[in-house]
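Cross-posted from the bioinformatics board.
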Amino acid sequence: MQDIRKPLRSSSYSISCELCSLGPICTPILLNDALLERKKAFPKDHVFVTKDTPCTHFYIVNTGALKTYVTDQDGNEQINGFYLPGDVIGLDSIYTKKYNNNLKALTDTLVCELHYDEFIALMDTNKQVRDLVFNLLSRDICNYQKLILFFSQKKADSRLAIFIYSLYSRYEQHGHSSLNIKLSMSRADIANYLGLTIETVSRIFSKFQELGILSVQGKYIFIKDLDALIKLGN
Amino acid sequence: MQDIRKPLRSSSYSISCELCSLGPICTPILLNDALLERKKAFPKDHVFVTKDTPCTHFYIVNTGALKTYVTDQDGNEQINGFYLPGDVIGLDSIYTKKYNNNLKALTDTLVCELHYDEFIALMDTNKQVRDLVFNLLSRDICNYQKLILFFSQKKADSRLAIFIYSLYSRYEQHGHSSLNIKLSMSRADIANYLGLTIETVSRIFSKFQELGILSVQGKYIFIKDLDALIKLGN
DNA sequence: CGCCCCATTGAAGGGTTTCAATTATCGTGG
DNA sequence: CCACGATAATTGAAACCCTTCAATGGGGCG
């Protein structure tokens, strides 16, 4: 079997400022150093935001991957989402003024930090910034609505198929189109997020491999039949 | 058995302007008649918004109940959510500029219509309006995040328990605290929304009734043990 | 009153989880 | 560099939950 680890381009799994969700409001000096701290580093497994603490920054992922999670009353971790380069984290805090999730680096990660107060204040005076935030919020809501339908309706096979496809799709949107994907999260994290068990995730990966839809080798996935993967998601 | 229909107060299942999500920006003349058309009536089963048409209005439910839904590629209806008095509908359209769902009255319904363009324009000049919309958007995102966790993690029992509790809770927030609930939607709608079958929903209602948690009589629910209902949701 | 639709209930089948055992992978220290 | 231990991932078998298919019961409306 082809070693799917060969074409690994982990160093390229970062986002250029042009393709970042902040887009044109960031690259010019519109956002100066008082508002934005660029490329701050967090090591793998570092929890750098704790739920219910006051919101001081929004984060934009530059390189690496993060997960947001809460812990339920039994102390179990419940993963809310994964964030990849270009994603903005923390917009839900506009309402609560505090973080609604814990935030943990899945790999060594670079983020841009946006100072909350200053940025919120900037929205009052700058229409371009304001419109951007409206669009980000509204877009988030659209995505979440789709996600709710997804989780309410889909069985295990579809969940995993769409999960893998969405990783592909999100990298593609940010200019890293490749059928080779390195999972930055463990099977346990995937299972937790999808509301399945580790065993089920593992079994479905094996099944997809038998069906010739993808090659699985630990954290490395090679999508052999993208159309079939999409079809499985329906 | 006590006839739980007796304390029906369908006429009171409307919201006063003071408790509406628009709050203080609406009751004063801040929103004039050019922006807001009050208490427009739609009959039961009327589809008054079609997906993908340009967004012309936001809607705020005054009396009655609505559902939003899309149809998948097989033509099946997939319910996205139910809207009760006080709820604002259409904020996700800020990004797409068109409606992302069909909108159908579950009962005879009164809504307030907010003209999209004029309202968006008002945000440019009025900070109070702007902040309100930011908060509504951000709050929606918080709610959706919780809903995603809910649907990704919860089994059938919990789904139905939380669904019933959330109806109770939403009426309570808007000043109609009562353990008697009239379901405005069919079992099919509930099942569709929760990602279950009609049969499963029916069986769980029966089970809850046997456990003494609630009385079920068609569309009328009486919550006999709220704590147990909440516990079942976990 | 009767019809139709909605809701309930039962039995069988399929999918997911649970429990248990094995295998692979990663990091560490010899 | 290899060996080792710990952790992560895979695989199998049994139990459980939910769906599917089928039949019955009940309420609303003409």
